[in-house]
Amino acid sequence: MQVLKFGGTSVANAENIKKVIEIVKQSSQKDKTIVVVSALGGVTDLLLNAASLSETGNELYKEKLSEFEQRHLEAVKQLIPVAQQSQLLSLVKKSCNELEDICNGIFLLGELTARSKDRISSYGEWISSQIIAAAFNANKVDAVWKDAKELIVTNSAFTAAEVDFKETDSKINGYYNSQSASIIIIPGFIATDKNGVTTTLGRGGSDYTAAIIASALNAKALEVWTDVSGMMTADPRLTNNARIIPNISYQEAMELSHFGAKVIYPPTIQPVMNKAIPVWIKNTFAPTDTGTLIESTSSSNGNIVRGISSINNIALISLEGSGMVGIPGFSKRLFEALSSEKINVILITQSSSEHSICVGIDSKDAGKAKHSIDIAFANEIALQKVEPLKVEADLSIVALVGENMKNHTGISGRMFGAMGRNGVNIRAIAQGSSEKNISTVIATKNVKKAINVLHEEFFETTFKLVNLFISGTGNVGGKLLAQLNPQAIFYKKE
Ligand code: ADP
Ligand code: ASP
Ligand code: MG
Question: Which domains are seen in the chain, by residue range?
Answer without folding.
Answer: 2-226 (3.40.1160.10), 308-443 (3.30.2130.10)
